[in-house]
Amino acid sequence: MRVELDEPKCVASGQCVMAAPEVFDQRDDDGVAILLDEHPADELHDGVREAAAICPAAAIRLVEG
Predict the structure, then answer these.
(1) How many C-beta atoms lie closer than 10 Å to residue 22's C-beta?
(2) 26 C-beta neighbours (distance < 10 Å), count
(3) Is 16 exposed, middle or buried (0-12, 13-18, 19+ CB in 10 A)?
(4) pTM of the predicted structure, to 2 decimals
């Protein structure tokens, strides 16, 4: 799996950080999400999929494979 984050679309809700804290974080100055791991380990995939599903801005894209 490869994770792509469209930072300009992010609305800083923090949902991704709560779902997958090993993969996402937020900038201190504006709360916009940042990607910590573009290729997360297999055991993190469920959390990353949840993060993508609940992102209110649809800023997370997953490339499976």
Answers:
(1) 14
(2) 16
(3) buried
(4) 0.95
Strands 2-5 and 33-35: unpaired
Task: Give residue for tokens 């609305």.
Answer: 11
CB 63 within 8 A of CB 2: yes
Longest CA pairwise span in the chain (Å): 34
- Quote the pLDDT of residue 65: 79
Q: For residue 59, which phi and psi values (nearest 5 degrees)?
A: -90, -5
pLDDT in tens, 47-57: 999 999 999 99
Q: Which pLDDT tens digit goes with each residue over 14-34?
A: 999 999 999 999 999 999 999
Q: How far apart are CA 64 and CA 14, in angstroms?
A: 23
